[in-house]
Amino acid sequence: MKILHADDHSLFREGLGFFLKLLDAGVRPLEAGNLQAALDKLALESPVDLMLLDLEMPGMNGLEGFHEIRRRYPDLPIAIVSGVNDVRIIRELLDGGARGYIPKLAGSEQLMDALRRVLKGEIYVPDALFIPAQQTTANDAMASPLTSRQQEILPLLAEGMPNKKIADALSVTEGTVKQHLKDLFRRLGVRNRTQAVKEAQRLGLLRD
Fold first, then answer.
1. How many domains is the chain built from?
2. Contact assessment for residue 118 and residue 99, using Cβ atoms and an 8 Å cutoff
3. Based on the domain organization, do 185 and 125 belong to the same domain?
4. Would you say the pTM of this structure is higher than 0.70?
5. In what helix (H) or strand (E) does residue 104 lie, and over which residues does it extend?
6. How many angstroms separate the CA atoms of 94 and 123, rounded?
7. What is the pLDDT of residues 151-162, one digit of tens each?
8. Residue 156 dihedral angles phi and psi, to the nearest 5°
9. How far apart are CA 120 and CA 114, in angstroms?
10. Quick one: 56 exposed, middle or buried, by C-beta within 10 A (0-12, 13-18, 19+)?
């Protein structure tokens, strides 16, 4: 299993590489210190099973680096490992297909849990960054526990659209839709599509 960690701090890369090896004996950690080096490594080592990406290393230019990687490798799972904790930025990354956000200040237990979830295909975001669904009201749009992409998926879910049609409607892959649905169910505390629609209606996130 190849996992590429792109970060400009070599000490942090070495530390995270230690935890990656703890995940599975078959993990082969790869490293890059800037965007161009990361692109070169992806071209050389493709296919890569997971990329852990810092937002503030040389060459990134804000979120442009992330979007460039997504354009070149649309099926590559990317999780953000960064000190940036702006919820708006994190939501934009999730809407753009990121598998999750892992804060650089995460403890070892949180880090291992996050990595395991991402490798299982889940979308990981620390719960502290989002207001729980139980606190959401119809009159407080800012309290939505969902990303904007999940808010786009909900009405299509309510119409009974299968994943393939939702993917076509939003111009994303079916795999991306499945990832968002897994995270959507987790945030709403439900197990399936029907429960998700009912809970979203109850919380005022979806009109009847």
1. 2
2. yes
3. no
4. no
5. none
6. 8
7. 889 999 999 999
8. -70, -35
9. 10
10. middle
Residues 170 and 94 in one domain: no
Structure-block tokens of residue 193? 């599509």
Both 20 and 41 in one domain: the answer is yes
Single out the residue in 129, 147, 182 at which a domain terminates. Answer: 129
Assess whether 94 and 12 both reside in one domain. Answer: yes
Query: Residue 164 belongs to what domain range?
Result: 133-202
The encoded tokens of residue 132 equal 């729980």
Model pLDDT, residue 204: 78
Dist CA 67 CA 98 (whole Å): 10
Specify the pLDDT at position 163. Answer: 94
Report the alpha-carbon distance of residue 163 to residue 181 in Å, rounded. 9
The Cα 96–Cα 158 span in angstroms is 23
Q: What is the mean pLDDT of residues 45-58?
A: 94
Strands 28-32 and 2-6: parallel
Rounded to an integer, what distance in angstroms lies between the CA atom of residue 152 and that of residue 158? 11
Chain Cα centroid distance, residue 74 = 13
Distance CA 38, CA 31 (A): 8
Output helix, strand, coil percentages for the chain, rounded to the nearest 5: 50, 10, 35
Q: Are residues 72 and 172 in the same domain?
A: no
The band of 208, judged by pLDDT with boundaries at 50, 70 and 90, is low
The mean pLDDT value for 38-47 works out to 96
